[in-house]
Amino acid sequence: MTIGLLLKGILMGLVVSVPLGPVGVMCIQRTINRGMKSGLISGIGAASADTVYAIIAGFGLGYIVNFINQEKYWIQLIGAIIIIGMAIKIFYTNPAVELRNRRNKKSKPLEDFISVFLVTLSNPAVFFVFIAMFAGFNVVSSQPNNYLSVLIAIGSIFLGAASWWYVLSAVVNKFRSRIRLKNIWWLNKIMGVIVFICGLVALIDLYL
User: Fold this and answer.
1) Crossing angle, helix 72-91 and helix 22-34, to 10 degrees?
2) Distance (Å, rounded) from C-alpha 208 to C-alpha 193?
3) Other CB atoms closer than 10 Å to residue 163's CB: what's the count?
4) Would you list the domain boundaries of the chain?
5) Is 179 helix (H, G, I), strand (E, B) or coil?
6) Tens place of pLDDT for every residue, the chain, 208 residues?
7) 125: DSSP letter
């Protein structure tokens, strides 16, 4: 049963992480500009936020569930604004400056983690995806003796999500040495536009 739960949790973590939305684009952009460490830490921020929603969905924390349902509009609005802000930052990122900062060891892992954590946390749709997956995979906490199972599933969800971000950042980092500075400049522009569009879509979706 434990192995089955581990596999289910890893699969759930992969399901919510693999789709390359704005978070995925940001992790790729940071890996290209700053190296694998920055991309991986950003991905861990996303995995941590996903795990927070998994905890709420798995244990059915009533007050927080109601809060998310009631304040879903404002959570999504703040998230859309954060995404647009990150898009503008990506668009105007100067790869030469990033390279110089990296050489001078001016890395900002906490900033990488928190920024992506907040973007991911501001998407309440992840919470409802986890509710559906917990039900679909038959991982519920309605029975008193089932909390250990949920804890195992939640731990493996983080493991699955973190594994994906490790693989993604490692693959991108492997090929980044072949990308010239001018190519990175254009990639920043393109990725910035993609993330900006994602933010606009999130805003428009609020009023549809």
Assistant:
1) 30
2) 22
3) 16
4) 2-206
5) coil
6) 578 778 888 888 888 888 767 788 888 888 888 889 999 999 999 999 999 988 888 777 666 667 767 777 777 787 788 778 878 877 877 766 665 665 555 568 888 899 899 888 887 778 778 877 776 666 654 444 567 777 888 899 999 999 999 999 998 888 887 777 677 777 778 877 887 887 788 788 777 6
7) H
Q: Sign of dihedral through CA atoms 25, 29, 30, 35? A: positive
For residue 35, what is the enclosing H or E element? none
Q: For CA atoms 143, 148, 152, 157, give the dihedral sign.
A: positive
Element (H, E) at 39: helix 36-59
| Cα–Cα dist 125/128, whole Å | 5
List the structure tokens of 173. 């980092």
Q: Amino acid identity of 25? A: V
Separation of alpha carbons 185 and 187, rounded Å: 5
- What is the identity of the amino acid at 195? V
